[in-house]
Specification:
With 452 residues, the chain is an alpha+beta fold. It has 3 domains: 199 residues, HUPs (Rossmann fold, 3-Layer(aba) Sandwich), CATH 3.40.50.620; 79 residues, Uridine Diphospho-n-acetylenolpyruvylglucosamine Reductase, domain 3 (2-Layer Sandwich); 131 residues, no CATH class. Helix content is 36%, strand content 19%. The chain contains 14 helices and 22 strands. Helix 1 packs across helix 6. The chain is globular. The termini are far apart. 30% of the residues are buried.
């Protein structure tokens, strides 16, 4: 029944096991072929907690796995619905995030989607106005986290799986939510596809074949667009050059942008937002600070570079934060600060500064006299010289000693009038957002505090 060839090499194959008929068939097929498989079979059940019977479903999965001699891992997730978002989509996203987190490097996640699921996926993509990538629907093998997502049942229909399950006397759980027509997929499954099948009995297979054709076409497009994408790389990692992007014809610009989002693992924008990126962001003045955002992604520009990233975290409170010993953890997702000797060994602020240090954010009207040339410059000018985008600046930790600005993170060290010792030091700001941007930092190792 299941396709058992063409998998990436792996040591562990996790079966996405809901306890329903489809995943029960997949698990049974794999267990029957266990001695011929090059990987160890394990089962993974995601407990959403969305249904009163969710605990019973988990217990059913545990009982079946014990009977089959298959190790089972149960992952619990919380799905919080926000206004305007699909509960079905949120649950699916939470499920894949949980499963992705389980996968080790090169592991397989074996999922039970079949030919009818493929047809439903393509029809949903049509209703969203998707292009070839969306209409390609579900591939047999795809990257997922550090491993691979594999769908061994894609060549078989729902009726075949049901017949197999009944013939093997399998035990499974029925989710009553699968009958609810308020979910788009269920509406297609119970209303639209049966009506199409009355006229075209092989419609599910035909639709799945169309998805395969779209996948082939998208493969050719990806090769062409990958070449274009590499030719418009920006100065920062994963950024695009706006001037080079502007040299491409508009259709290629859109293809490159969609390909770029997919490679970064970000949600794709709809057509309206894509047009806004082309007009409001790429077409903005070089000194502008435009933003186009949608759930899971923000697109900004700085000078000639276009950035796409996960939404920025909440801005940290202004402070002050006292820093006396060890590594200072900064609020929110801003990272941490370390004080280091020139050789990289850790220092405590109290070893150099009798009162320790203070950290603040977003202090207005500050100037920095750099230790190198002692020129007094406003922070805005310093940020510009270091290439710090305006939307990062509110997160930059400003380090003070006795009320004097000592350092702007590890971007610049400032001359201070505070009396300190004669030891050299340097600051290190560890922050995911700035590591990704590789903001220009001081090349010199630290600052000679004797100058102060």
């Amino acid at each position: 029944m299941a396709r058992l060839a063409g998998f990436p090499d792996a040591k562990i194959g996790w079966v996405a096991y809901s306890g329903g008929v489809d995943s029960s068939v997949l698990l049974d097929c794999l267990v029957a072929a266990r001695n011929r498989l090059p990987f160890e079979i394990r089962a993974l059940h995601v407990h959403h907690g969305l249904h009163p019977d969710a605990d019973a479903w988990s217990e059913h999965c545990a009982c079946e796995c014990r009977r089959l001699g298959v190790p089972l891992e149960i992952r619990r997730v919380e799905v919080s619905r926000t206004r305007g978002e699909s509960l079905e989509a949120l649950a699916r996203q939470a499920r894949y995030e949980a499963m992705s987190a389980v996968l080790g490097r090169g592991d397989l996640l074996l999922s039970a989607q079949h030919r009818d699921d493929q047809a439903e996926t393509l029809l949903l993509a049509l209703m969203r106005g998707s292009g070839p990538a969306g209409l390609a629907a579900m591939p047999f093998v795809a990257l997922l986290g550090e491993g691979w997502l594999v769908r061994p049942l894609l060549e078989h229909g729902r009726a075949e799986l049901r017949a197999y399950a009944e013939g093997r006397n399998l035990r499974w759980q029925e989710d009553p939510g699968n009958r609810s027509l308020r979910f788009d997929r269920n509406f297609l499954r119970h209303r639209v596809l049966p009506l199409l099948a009355e006229r075209w009995p092989s419609c599910a297979a035909s639709i799945a074949r169309s998805a395969a054709n779209c996948a082939e076409a998208q493969g050719v497009i990806d090769v062409l667009v990958e070449e274009k994408l590499s030719g418009v790389a920006g100065r920062w990692p994963d950024a695009l050059s706006i001037s080079l992007l502007g040299d491409l014809p508009v259709p290629f610009r859109k293809l490159v942008l969609r390909h770029w989002f997919r490679k970064l693992g970000l949600a794709l924008p709809d057509s309206r937002r894509l047009d806004r990126i082309l007009c409001d962001v790429i077409g903005a003045r070089p000194d502008a600070d435009p933003l186009v955002a949608w759930p899971g992604c923000e697109v900004r520009r700085y000078r000639d570079d276009l950035f796409a990233m996960a939404p920025l975290p909440s801005r940290p409170p202004a402070g002050p934060i006292h820093w006396g010993r060890g590594v200072l953890s900064l609020p929110g997702a801003v990272g941490c600060l370390e004080l280091l000797a020139p050789d990289g060994s850790p220092l405590d602020p109290l070893d150099l500064f009798a009162t320790g240090l203070e950290v603040r954010f977003r202090v207005k009207g500050l100037f920095c006299r750099t230790v190198r040339d002692r020129h007094r410059r406003p922070l805005k000018k310093l940020y510009q010289e270091a290439g710090v985008p305006p939307w990062i600046r509110p997160y930059v930790p400003l380090v003070f000693v006795e009320g004097n600005l000592l350092a702007v993170a590890d971007i610049r060290t400032c001359h201070s009038d505070a009396p300190v010792g004669r030891r050299q030091f340097r600051l290190r700001w560890r922050s995911e957002m700035c590591e990704r941007l590789r903001i220009g930092r001081e090349e010199a190792v630290g600052s000679d505090t004797s100058r102060f």
